[in-house]
Backbone:
C-alpha cells in the first residue's frame, strides 16, 4: 500500500474509537482519488480476511494493483502470491445507497441474495489475470449486503457441478467467501488430490490482530 492508503487502512482497522479517529479517517478518505478509495476498500477487506485466516504476520504488507494484475500482491519469502477481490452486492441497492448518501433521501428497491453472488463468481472466473505463474486466490466478500447463510449454502450445494466447472476453467487456486463486518469466513472452494472440494466454513468472528 502507498502512504495515504496505508494510513487510512490502519486507522480504519483500529476501530475508530474516538471522534478524532473518525475525523482523521474521513479526512484521509476524502484525500484519496476514486481509484485509491477502491484500493483502500480492497486493502481493508484483505487485511481483515488475512487476520481471520491467520494468513500473515503483518497483513498490511501488501501491494495494490490494477488490471490486468489482480487486486492484491504479496511478496512472500517462498513465492509471489495474488488475490483478486470482488464484492457480492446488489447493484441496484448499491446505486440507491450512493444516491441516498448524496441527497439525503431514502430510496427503496427489491433485494436479491443469489444473483449478485452468481454474477460475481461468473465474472471473476471468466477473467484473465497477469500473475507470471504465481498462485492466485479469489476473495469474494460481503460488505453492503448481509448474507443469508441458508441461501448461500443452497447456492453452493444446488449448483455444485456448475460451480466446479467455473472453478476448473478459472486461474484460481482457491475461492473464498467472506463477510467483512463480522470477519466471518463462509465458504472455500479448492482442489484437493485432484477433486474439487467445496466447504462451508462459517467461522466464528475473529477481529483481534494476529
Residues:
Amino acid at each position: 500500500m502507498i502512504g495515504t492508503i496505508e494510513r487510512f487502512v490502519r486507522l480504519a482497522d483500529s476501530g475508530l474509537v474516538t471522534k478524532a479517529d473518525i475525523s482523521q479517517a474521513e479526512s484521509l478518505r476524502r484525500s484519496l482519488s476514486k481509484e485509491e478509495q477502491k484500493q483502500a476498500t480492497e486493502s481493508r477487506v484483505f487485511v481483515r480476511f488475512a487476520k481471520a485466516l491467520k494468513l500473515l504476520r503483518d497483513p498490511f504488507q501488501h501491494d495494490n494493483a490494477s488490471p490486468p494484475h489482480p487486486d492484491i500482491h504479496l511478496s512472500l519469502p517462498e513465492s509471489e502470491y495474488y488475490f483478486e477481490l470482488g464484492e457480492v452486492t446488489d447493484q441496484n441497492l448499491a446505486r440507491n445507497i450512493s444516491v441516498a448518501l448524496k441527497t439525503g433521501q431514502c430510496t427503496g428497491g427489491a433485494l436479491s441474495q443469489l444473483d449478485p453472488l452468481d454474477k460475481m463468481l461468473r465474472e471473476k472466473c471468466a477473467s484473465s489475470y497477469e500473475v507470471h505463474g504465481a498462485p492466485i486466490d479469489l476473495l469474494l466478500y460481503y460488505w453492503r449486503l448481509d448474507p443469508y447463510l441458508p441461501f448461500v449454502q443452497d447456492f453452493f450445494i444446488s449448483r455444485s457441478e456448475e460451480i466446479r466447472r467455473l472453478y476448473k476453467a478459472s486461474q484460481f487456486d482457491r475461492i473464498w467467501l467472506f463477510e467483512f463486518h463480522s470477519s466471518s469466513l463462509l465458504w472455500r472452494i479448492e482442489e484437493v488430490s485432484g477433486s474439487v472440494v467445496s466447504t462451508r466454513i462459517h467461522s466464528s468472528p475473529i477481529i483481534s490482530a494476529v
